[in-house]
Write a structure and sequence with these properties.
With 214 residues, the protein is an all-alpha fold. The protein has two domains: 66 residues, Tetracycline Repressor, domain 2 (Orthogonal Bundle), CATH 1.10.357.10; 134 residues. The protein is 70% helix and 2% strand. It has a two-stranded antiparallel ribbon with strand order 1-2.
């Protein structure tokens, strides 16, 4: 009896029916994780293909190459706020703008701590000026602004307070603390390692919001 020659791994893969949606998602997740781990320095077609376990030609076919992948990641980051931060108030009765900003600050800090790629992008925003970083940053900031407006609804803005600048400072401080935690585990002598440390940060942020907005 004649024995058929054993197929190579590439031939075997080629004969299996492909699920385009699953392959696209695998490529996307591989690209996202590589970007989070290594930044743009380790972000290449071959590296993404190896991480996704697919032929690199599929990246060109489905995304048009690296630029298309960056665009797809940027679009996802555009919905990051809505995906990561619940639009309900967690049982908190929102009566004033101060109530809202207290809750949103807590949501934002928790979501940022849970997403290493967004932390990387925040760090890149202040250290790199490339088209790729600008594209990702713009998508994220547009989403954050839209989200704040949507969550505010019909609440009256406090008089005598520049809310846009104040909120920018508030969210920037939260971002910086989260980045510092990932790099050194502290900032200005304040430890940022344990949940107890972050409980103290949360309490301080709440006090700041109440001091400003009442």
């Amino acid at each position: 009896m004649l024995q058929m020659p054993e197929m190579t791994a590439q031939q075997n893969q080629a004969m299996r029916p492909r699920n385009r949606a699953n392959t696209e998602r695998a490529i996307f997740l591989a690209a996202r994780s590589l970007l989070a781990e290594h930044g743009f320095q380790g972000f290449g077609i071959n590296a993404v293909a190896r991480r996704a376990g697919c032929d690199k030609q599929l990246i060109y076919r489905y995304y048009g190459g690296l630029d298309g992948l960056i665009e797809a990641i940027g679009e996802e980051l555009g919905s990051w706020v809505n995906d990561k931060i619940p639009q309900d108030t967690g049982g908190m009765f929102i009566l004033t703008y101060g109530d809202l900003m207290e809750k949103l600050s807590m949501y934002f800090m928790e979501a940022l701590r849970d997403d290493p790629l967004v932390c990387k992008i925040v760090a890149w925003e202040v250290s790199q000026d490339t088209p790729q970083v600008r594209r990702l940053s713009e998508s994220r900031m547009k989403a954050l602004s839209k989200w704040l407006e949507k969550m505010r609804g019909s609440l009256t803005l406090p008089k005598g307070v520049d809310t846009a600048t104040t909120n920018a400072l508030l969210f920037a401080s939260i971002q910086h603390l989260v980045i510092s935690a990932s790099v050194s585990g502290q900032f200005a002598g304040v430890p940022l390692k344990t949940e107890k440390d972050w409980d103290k940060v949360a309490a301080a942020v709440r006090r700041l919001v109440r001091a400003i907005y009442g």
